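Lab meeting prep.
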Amino acid sequence: MLDRLEQIEKHYQELDRQIALPEVNIDPEKLQALAQEKADLEDLVTKYRAYRETAKELEDTKAMLDGAQEEDMSAMVKQEIEKLEARLENRPHPQRPQRPEGHHHGNQGGDGRR
């Protein structure tokens, strides 16, 4: 699942790059299509980035526990780990948004009609 989310994030970044191109800015239909696709992915990408950031914080904090010599420091780090684990568990997992039937973007196969 995380690999797929990474691909979606890269696609989101590519949409940003395409939207910034001068040739896209002079084509209102293309610009609107790209902007709509980007908007459709924005919530998912934002949630994925927040999830990834929290997971990284947890990883870093666990590494601190390995290096904690003092008991007070170790207890503090353990509390932080518990807090971060709870944040990860309570954070809604990013899920690909469902599009209404008949509303498709891009090349999704078929006969090319929308």
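Slide two material, second protein:
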Amino acid sequence: MMSSLLEALRLGAVPEGMRWLVDATLKVTVLLAAAGVATLVGRRSSATTRHLAWSLAVLGSLALPLFSLVLPSWQLRILPRRAAKPRVEVALEAPAGRESWGSRRWRSSCRSR
């Protein structure tokens, strides 16, 4: 799911408002994951230190969306843009004068009711 979301962001298939929301969510996720790693590394440290790590992570996750609105954004090109795949459209209608198998079946099921 995460890779498909990043792919949609990279190809520009996400509206700008949604792009901001996804960007803030990813940043907050990284921040909370870093706090979790810091807590695991400092397992033998005092509870006060671990509480401080989580408190700073929660405060940072509350402030991060606000900062991303106020401060200028950074555009890091980590992955190159791929060209969009060409869309293939398929005609679902039967040729004129011919009924498809599905439409005959649908009509017969309507008559039997």
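Talking points for slide two:
The chain has a mean pLDDT of 75.
Residues 32 and 57 are 6 Å apart (CA to CA).
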